[in-house]
Structures are given as structure tokens and as C-alpha cells.
């Protein structure tokens, strides 16, 4: 498999992984919120935040498996190692990502004024900044696995940071656009398209870095034989 074929396979894997994994995570969160309604106490806010973080394990598991399927013929990395690393990164990122909204909700429940949602362009900018940071969090556990197999694996960290700098604004903008339509079917289609596009964009960016590691991995395996 040449580098271009690997990159295409990686992009598709990330697109489908985010569509299924993040889609399942969002769906569970939406159903739970619809069933319980707006949290009315600090305890309820913390419980909802904890449940949200745990559902992030779904995204981590699905994405980790999809990525490993795309990379298994080019890297001698076990499913167990990559899955564990992706799960650790996803749970850590979800935990840190949920902190700001949780603190704002606790402030409201404690008697503070209701927060006013900023304009979409501001939300997308903040989403990009969040992606820049959370991309590092996502990448570190995977980097610990990659560095055992390739040289210069530390590039995987800025690669993910750059990828999610572009990926998070797509999520914020796409979800906002999809939620503005009246038809439930079109809303579902819009969310699905957003998640697929996000995964493809993120995969295209950090996949361009990952393809640079392919030849190194092949070389390492050849030397060990």
C-alpha cells in the first residue's frame, strides 16, 4: 500500500469512526437530556457531566478500532494498545472539555445569572481554541504507543492539535445549523453530515503526518526480522 492509499484509508476510517462513535455519544446524551430535562441542582449538573464523560468512551472505542483497522497493515501496533490509548485520550479530552459548561451550569444553579450564549462565530472561534488544546490531550496516549514503533513520533501531538483546531469549529457550526431546521429528518442528516465531515477533515490533517511514519514503521519491522 502506497502512502496515498494509506492516507485515503485513514481519512475514511476517521470519518466513519466519528460518524458512528460521536454520533452514538451525541444520541445517548440527547436522549438522556430529553428524558431528564434541564438539571435543577448542582448534584444533577455533576451527574450529567459525569455521564457525558463516560459516554465519550463510545467515541474512543469506535474511533480507536476504526483507526487501527486502517493502520494495522502499515504499523505493528496491537489493537489492545491502540484501543487503550485512544480510550484514555478520548475520556481525558471529554473530561476537560465538559469542565467550562459544567462550571457555568453550577454557577446558574447556585443563584448566578443565566448565561447568554455568544454568537456562532464566537462559539466557532472558541471551539477552535478548545480543539487546539484537546487535540494535544487526545494525542499524548497515542504518541506513547507510536513512539515505540517509529522515530519522530512526537509530531503526532501537534498534528492532532492542528487537526482539531479545524475540526471543532465544524462541529459547532454544523450542529448549530442542523438544530435550526424544523424537520427532524433533515436535522439528523445535518448532524450526521457534520460528524462525517469533521472526522474526514481531522483525519486528512493528522493523516498527512501519519503517512510520514509509514516508511519508518516498515523499516523498523524489517530490521527486527
What key phrases describe this protein's structure?
83% helix; globular; mainly alpha; 225 residues; 0% strand
Write structural notes for this entry.
The longest helix is centred in the last third of the chain and has 41 residues, at 184-224. Helix 1 (3-36) runs antiparallel to helix 2, helix 3 (79-109) runs antiparallel to helix 4 (120-146) and helix 5 (156-179) runs antiparallel to helix 6. This protein has six helices and no strands. The protein has one domain (3-224). It has helices spanning 3-36, 42-71, 79-109, 120-146, 156-179, 184-224. The chain is an all-alpha fold.
Spell out the blueprint of helices and strands:
Blueprint: H1 3-36, H2 42-71, H3 79-109, H4 120-146, H5 156-179, H6 184-224
* Main sheet attributes: strand count, strand direction, barrel closure: none
N-to-C order of helices and strands: HHHHHH
Q: What's the overall geometry?
A: globular
The secondary-structure class comes to mainly alpha
- What is the percent of helical residues? over 70%
Q: What percent strand?
A: under 5%
- Cα-atom radius of gyration: 19 Å
Distance N terminus to C terminus?
20 Å
Amino acid at each position: 500500500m502506497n502512502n496515498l492509499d494509506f492516507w485515503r484509508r485513514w481519512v475514511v476510517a476517521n470519518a466513519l469512526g466519528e460518524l458512528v462513535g460521536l454520533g452514538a455519544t451525541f444520541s445517548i446524551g440527547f436522549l438522556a437530556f430529553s428524558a431528564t430535562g434541564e438539571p435543577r441542582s448542582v448534584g444533577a449538573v455533576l451527574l450529567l457531566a459525569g455521564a457525558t464523560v463516560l459516554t465519550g468512551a463510545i467515541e474512543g472505542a469506535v474511533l480507536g478500532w476504526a483507526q487501527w483497522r486502517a493502520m494495522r497493515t502499515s504499523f505493528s501496533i496491537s489493537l489492545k494498545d491502540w484501543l487503550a490509548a485512544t480510550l484514555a485520550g478520548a475520556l481525558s479530552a471529554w473530561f476537560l472539555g465538559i469542565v467550562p459548561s459544567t462550571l457555568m451550569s453550577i454557577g446558574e444553579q447556585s443563584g448566578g445569572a443565566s448565561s447568554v450564549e455568544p454568537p456562532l462565530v464566537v462559539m466557532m472561534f472558541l471551539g477552535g481554541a478548545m480543539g487546539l488544546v484537546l487535540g494535544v490531550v487526545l494525542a499524548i496516549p497515542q504518541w506513547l504507543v507510536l513512539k515505540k514503533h517509529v522515530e519522530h513520533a512526537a509530531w503526532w501531538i501537534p498534528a492532532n492539535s492542528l487537526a482539531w483546531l479545524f475540526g471543532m469549529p465544524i462541529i459547532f457550526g454544523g450542529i448549530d445549523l442542523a438544530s435550526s431546521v424544523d424537520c427532524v429528518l433533515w436535522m439528523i442528516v445535518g448532524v450526521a453530515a457534520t460528524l462525517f465531515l469533521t472526522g474526514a477533515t481531522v483525519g486528512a490533517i493528522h493523516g498527512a503526518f501519519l503517512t510520514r511514519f509509514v516508511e519508518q514503521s516498515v523499516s523498523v519491522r524489517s530490521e527486527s526480522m
